[in-house]
Amino acid sequence: MDSMRIYGFLFICFFLLAILHLGNAQDMIAPSPAVSDSKTIDQGIAYVLLLVALAITYIFH
């Protein structure tokens, strides 16, 4: 059971690392949008909070 927790924790860590790495993968040639969509930002925050809640639930279960 402990090995499953370790593998789950490592999977979550690598998953979050990949998500954070994708944030830096912006093309230098393409200009950024002038106005950001607040709905998209709110949805992104909601997804991150959902993943954190899922990870915490998995770890403590």
TrEMBL record:
The chain crosses the membrane at residues 41-60. Keywords: Membrane, Signal, Transmembrane, Transmembrane helix. It holds the Pfam family AGP. Residues 1-25 form the signal peptide. The keyword Zinc-finger does not apply. It comes from the Eukaryota. The keyword Oxidoreductase does not apply. PANTHER family: ARABINOGALACTAN PROTEIN 20 (PTHR33374). This is Arabinogalactan peptide 22. The lineage of its organism: Eukaryota, Viridiplantae, Streptophyta, Embryophyta, Tracheophyta.
